[in-house]
Fold this protein.
Amino acid sequence: MRVSDNRFKVLATDGDCNLGGKDWDAALIQIIKEKLCEGSDVTMEELEANEDTMTDLKTQAEGKKISLSSLKEVKGAVRFGTSTLKYTVSREEFEAATAGELQATIMKVDSALASANLTMDGIDDIVLVGGSTRMPQVKAGIIAAYPSCEAKIHIHDPDLAIATGAAIYQNTRDVIVDTGNGEKPVDGKLSKFAPTVGNIEIEKVLSHTMGVKVWDEAKQKYLISNIIFRNRALPIKDEGEYYVHKDKQTALEVVIFQSDFDEAEENREVSEEECEEVGSFVVEIPSDSKAGEPVMVSIEADDKADIICTCTFRDITKSHTLAAKGLLNDDQIRKARKYILG
């Protein structure tokens, strides 16, 4: 992000929605299982077949992971039938087992920097958020990858950083009147946030490249034709021209895919295996359609990151909306405010 006064401009975003704390939990669970078997005559098959033991083990793993952020090693025990199985896991063992996951995360940092046409030398501050950043290996991994950035790394209440920022941002949008005494009424209630925050402007970017599935006659295979690309400023809209596949076709199936490709000519059409299907809809068309007739498909993303895909054939137009993940609708927002404000 580029921050200037109260203006926040996102330059690039990246990540892997399939990589997270659960992967570190899984690695720790595997270490503990191996330790339990090594210290007893219980086999891995017997251990994994015992539901009570596995439930206890999984419950303990998250707590032990948190403890390893401050301790060099942790000890524990689980019940297996009438026996008690004990284990000890060191931070060194845990970090070695999760080195691959950490490296995958660092690679996403590299990718985000490349998308923004920056190097780490061009970054002034690195803010780590999320409970997993409490693990010492995260900061150490960043320093190992970018030795000059140690002094730039900041960790401030990582468990609440995102929620606090969202609350401050929403507060600036909800302000009705300044009472002059440092408090502002919000929906009839008084906010305790400092009145000096002012209005915050956030310029967002698209997080994923979006395209549709098409048949490539020359290659005799399906491809994903990308229409809008990630890390472009929101709102954004673009379109592609396609064609009816055969005579007397009565329907067009529009299948929407997302991916992590950056905008480049070679990424206009990519293989289906490298993308993820996120939605589809069908457009019924007249039976007198002919192969080669043009079909226009547009994809737009608004400033909330809702994705709207529109297909037009002759005078027939149909749209399909993919709501941004994690957003609350208006009714849910009203209920949430009621709980928060009392």
Notes: The CA atoms of residues 189 and 341 lie 7 Å apart. The longest strand covers residues 251-259. The mean pLDDT is 88. DSSP finds eight helices and 18 strands in the chain.
